[in-house]
Amino acid sequence: MSLSRRALVSSFAAFATAALSRPALAGDKGSGGPLKPGQPVTPAAPVATGPFVLPALPYADTDLAPVISQSTIGFHYGKHHQGYVTKLNELVAGKDWASKPLDEVMKATYGSDNVGIYNNSAQVWNHTFYWGSMKKGGGGAPAGKLADAIKTSFGDFEAFKKEFAQAATTQFGAGWAWLVLGTDGKLKVTKTANADNPIVLGQGKPLLTIDVWEHAYYLDYQNKRGDYVAAWIEKVANWSFAESQLG
Ligand SMILES: [Fe+2]
Questions:
Q1: Is residue 29 predicted with pLDDT exceeding 90?
Q2: Per-residue pLDDT tens over the stretch 116-135
Q3: 155 C-alpha to center of ligand 1: Å?
Q4: Cα(128) to centroid of ligand 1, in Å?
Q5: What are the distances in angstroms from CA 225 to CA 54, 58, 123, 173?
Q6: Ligand 1 centroid to 225 CA: how many Å?
Q7: 247: confidence class by pLDDT, cuts 50, 70, 90
């Protein structure tokens, strides 16, 4: 196991930091063959087909049920997230991008002619951040530094939850809602479309995100995005991860 690989599995904050800023690790896990509903997503053997890799999930694929089912994670992580990694590797093959850290690729290609590289690199980044934004037994209310920052910025936790849920449910079409540390030092809620995120848009530093693309919830909630968002906030939101991103 390489040092970076050990960092990935030793703690989740390390996982997110390392996975979102570095290029490929030969020992990282990729996804296996065709996935069937309910099939565990952890592959038996690592698959590394290019410089970028699918980071390991920080929990078992059953840990977020019933808020997010094993089947949803199987497709979302095992097929969609893996698909972005695979496509990105195809697009950067033989190019300088292949040796750059993921976040550097994403920022450098935003708004450029390299639309495919941007979309896929940003989606790899966003999804890795999304898996970190959830945990088994999450939800409830944050404590400590994050709780204080939320109170200062939103008045109280209930006001924040309302604003975050509103952003997640009203994002038109595919996208994301975020809790962000703004450049003014205050927390704020934002929403972004498709692959965009607060980093490329200059909205601040991401602390937490919820994926509101239909592939994130349709198997479990069909068209009821609001139910997914409410359950996500109450049951799986990872406040300690968000606090760790404050720095
Ligand atoms: Fe997604």
A1: no
A2: 999 999 999 999 999 999 99
A3: 31
A4: 10
A5: 26, 24, 20, 11
A6: 14
A7: confident
> Do 116 and 26 fall into the same domain?
yes
Q: Distance from the CA of 148 to the center of ligand 1, in angstroms? A: 30
Residues 213 and 187 in one domain: yes
- Using pLDDT thresholds of 50, 70 and 90, give the confidence band for residue 22: very low
pTM: 0.84
The pLDDT of residue 27: 33
Output the CA 123–ligand 1 centroid distance in Å. 8
Gap from CA of 215 to ligand 1 centroid (Å)? 6
CATH number of the domain encompassing residue 148? 3.55.40.20
| Distance between Cα 37 and ligand 1 center (Å) | 17
* Overall domain count for the chain: 2
Residue 113: inside a domain, yes or no? yes
pLDDT of residue 53: 94
Q: Which domain holds residue 11?
A: 3-60+68-132
pLDDT band at 203 (very low <50, low <70, confident <90, very high): very high
- pLDDT for 50: 78
Q: In angstroms, what is the span from residue 159 Cα to ligand 1's centroid?
A: 26
- The environment of the single-atom ion ligand 1, i.e. residues with CB closer than 5 A, is 211, 213, 216
